[in-house]
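chain below, 256 aa
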Amino acid sequence: MKQYVVDAFADRVFEGNPAAVCLPETWPSDQQMLAIARENRLPETAFAVRDGKDWRLRWFAPSGEVSLCGHATLAAAYAICRFVEPEAEVLRFQTLSGPLTVRRRGKLFELDFPAYSLKRLEVTSQIADALGARPREVWRARDLVCVFDDPRTVMELKPELDKVKALKGALMQVTAPGTGTEYDCVSRTFTPKMGLPEDPVCGSGHCHIIPYWAERLGKRMLTARQASPRGGTLYCRLEGTGSCWLGGPPCFPQRT
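prediction:
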């Protein structure tokens, strides 16, 4: 079984979100896949096995299997297109979250992900205490989404992760308007429930963030910056109310 490590949503090596991609001929056991993910200690390890014209895709964080992961899907598509199907322009994955499509557009890979419908919540002292700053708005779908006015607040947050872990929602997304004209929004993703403090670039998190900012800014195409220490850029577009396309250039730093 070959394993590749790909930096997704990265304009250069050592930026973006690293994912391991394993391409076995048949499925390892669930215990073995989880052990590999824990050994890698990356945000996600993807396992892809060919299924006719499609691929079956599963994702494992160090804490266990997850139902949806954007950056590891992009990484898997890149590894398959580079080493298995170099002529492919469209890849279709069968996953726990249903069929997912990845398209090649020049140097970018685009993922068609479901957009989340957000419900507004009260801004509580528990949330403000966990983050160390009080958001202007709080929304929830799969994740909590906390909206701030100043991008510097997002970049400088030092949350208490044990308190974040006690909040509702799978992940904690924090976001603010973009800086200057280069980015429409900035964000960070805190992931203590997944066994890691922070996700460098969260694709599925932007299925929350992009619908919010698309409505707020009156735009369907947005450039988003994940302001984690590694950093990463996503080129996004919202189609209708249910489809969120996430595009990014993958870098390929290593193969094992």
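The CA atoms of residues 102 and 178 lie 26 Å apart. DSSP finds six helices and 18 strands in the chain.
thats it, cya
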